[in-house]
Specification:
Order of helices and strands: EHHEEEEEEHEHEHEHEEHEHHEEHEH
Protein name: Ornithine cyclodeaminase
Strand order of the largest sheet: 10-9-8-11-12-16-13-15-14
GO cellular component, one term: cytoplasm
Oligomer: single chain
CATH architecture of the largest domain: 3-Layer(aba) Sandwich
Number of domains: 2
CATH superfamily of the largest domain: NAD(P)-binding Rossmann-like Domain
Strand content: 25-35%
Length: 340
């Protein structure tokens, strides 16, 4: 008998996500990826300009991963329009579809917003914990949307060390509202809304840009010694900031190398990036002077096959392009939780 496709709403997903160890799931996916128990195709992207002159895009990101002795397959479709916030809508939204491994039929459709934000924050938190010199005390977040809130909620639950959060958003009211909401819950943390991104970033132990920019604005000299920068929105750093970093770590090199729009992918296509060690072709000469050397993928750090931080003063940049495997795995666990 073929089961009818289940549909889980945003509210369903939010409630079930509370019962899911998202950081643990993300870690297991990285281990599976390192062990070759995944299939991660390139994402496809459709871009257009709408009748209002606003940039729009649709991403389709399939993946298959084996965790808990069980394979999970599916895809995330997530669409965005830069004009949506002015309409009172979230900038991005979409669905995750899970597939039956025998029939290949979709068995569950889940609202993607909470899963996408939750797994993105989980990757950032895990990467930071793998790479920080000491537990973070001062955190800078540039951008004050849903991703900023997801990152800070997760980080502040896990890190009692945090004493200060500096927030900046081009729309100051958004940053102020977020600071007030979080301040009501996290009373041991000082929340400061800064007038500029520079004021937020300088001297922070951890920097998390979560913006919609397509132009770099964070130079190397804003980044403190020993800091970790998790470059979530991918285009906030200048090429010089990437070049000056002591280490650059990616989530998946193949996705970065295939990309034609983000800064690290563009630098790679220009011959300015040396791939992580296990992706280097011994028959291909390395660039004479690569501007950026990618030192590891996150799966290598998780499974211990690559070294993380080598000095307390290292400035480390994490470039998490975004792996659909995490969305699919988290969705799969939510689906199983619903069925039980």
């Amino acid at each position: 008998m073929v089961r009818a496709m289940l549909q889980l709403t945003d509210a369903d997903v939010a409630a079930l996500l509370e019962k899911t160890d998202v950081v643990g799931t993300v870690r297991e996916v990285f281990l599976a990826h390192a062990a070759g128990r995944t299939v991660l195709p390139e994402e496809s992207c459709l871009r257009w300009t709408n009748d209002e002159g606003e940039a729009c895009r649709s991403l389709n990101m399939p993946g298959l991963v084996e965790i808990d002795g069980r394979r999970i397959a599916g895809t995330k479709v997530i669409n965005a329009s830069l004009g949506n916030p002015a309409r009172g809508l979230a900038r991005a939204g979409g669905l995750i579809l899970l597939f039956d491994l025998t029939t290949a039929r979709p068995v569950c459709a889940l609202d993607a917003a909470h899963i996408s934000a939750g797994r993105t924050a989980a990757v950032s938190v895990l990467a930071t914990e793998l790479l920080w010199a000491a537990p973070a005390r001062a955190v800078a977040v540039v951008g004050a949307g849903a991703l900023a809130e997801a990152h800070l909620e997760l980080a502040l639950r896990r890190w009692p060390s945090v004493r200060q959060v500096r927030l900046h958003d081009r729309v100051r009211e958004r940053a102020t509202d977020l600071a007030e909401r979080l301040g009501d819950t996290h009373r041991t943390v000082a929340f400061d809304v800064t007038a500029t991104a520079e004021q937020a970033v300088r001297e922070a132990d951890l920097v998390i840009p979560v913006t919609t920019t397509t132009s770099g604005y964070i130079p190397a000299d804003w980044i403190a010694e020993g800091a970790v920068v998790v470059n979530v929105s991918l285009d906030d750093l200048t090429p010089e900031a990437l070049s000056a970093a002591d280490q650059v770590v990616v989530d998946d090199w193949s996705l970065v190398a295939a990309d034609t729009t983000r800064i690290l992918g563009r630098m790679h296509r220009a011959g300015d990036v040396l791939p992580p060690p296990r992706h280097r072709d011994p028959n291909t000469p390395a660039p004479a002077r690569p501007a950026v050397e990618v030192t590891a993928e996150l799966c290598d750090l998780v499974d211990g096959s690559a070294e993380g931080r080598t000095a307390a003063t290292d400035r480390i940049i994490v470039n998490p392009f975004g792996m659909s495997l995490h969305d699919v795995a988290v969705a799969g666990r939510i689906y199983q939780e619903f069925l039980t």
